[in-house]
Amino acid sequence: MKPILLPLAALLFVGSGCSTHKYVASKFANGKPEVVLYLKGKGEEAEKVMEKVYHPNGKLDYVGRFQDGKEQGEWNYFYEDGTRKYTEHWDKGLEEGVQIEYAPDGQVYLEKYFEKGKLIRTVDKSKQE
Description:
Layout: H1 2-16, E1 20-27, E2 33-40, E3 47-54, E4 60-67, E5 70-78, E6 84-91, E7 94-95, E8 97-102, E9 108-115, E10 118-124
Antiparallel strand pairs: 1-2, 2-3, 3-4, 4-5, 5-6, 6-7, 6-8, 8-9, 9-10
């Protein structure tokens, strides 16, 4: 039974060093955070896994994730009042899939389709009835 405990203890120790921590990279003059980074690891080896940027009023400007130092997954952007501005999708640092842009009233007005970082087509919803 002792041989099992040592590897288990080693896994718990290694796993505890991989937690994500928050770092406020910059603040506005009013003291509210402007850029908040979420890092995995410590010191020079820390890797950015998520980034949140805020408007001066404290509402979220955008949020996105990173994997291996590249944009990954869904990124969301917002107007100063908190209404969604646009959503984009990333795969290993390249835009992939549909990017949806919203008018300030929340209505979809533009869709952009990407494949491996290249714009394939654009659909202007504001011109459709």
